[in-house]
Design a protein that fits this description.
By secondary structure, the chain is mainly α. It is built from five helices and no strands. The radius of gyration is 11 Å and the shape is globular.
């Protein structure tokens, strides 16, 4: 599943995939794969991404269950 919330948070911060990647110690390709739903990042990388984007884990990585 695509991570649209992560992409929107990144764009809102006016950051390119390359800029975010450099800030969190990943590659641009890794950021692209996370945003496109083709890679599940480690919890550590998730935390670094959230810190760089100024959001919480819940903001961009939590999928709400529609049955709740």
């Amino acid at each position: 599943m695509k991570n649209i919330k992560m992409k929107l948070a990144r764009v809102a911060k006016d950051m390119s995939q390359e800029q975010l990647a450099l800030q969190v110690g990943a590659t641009r390709q890794t950021i692209l794969m996370i945003e496109s739903g083709k890679y599940n990042p480690s919890l550590n990388l998730c935390r670094q991404i959230c810190r760089a984007l100024g959001v919480t884990l819940n903001d961009i990585f939590w999928e709400a269950d529609n049955n709740e």
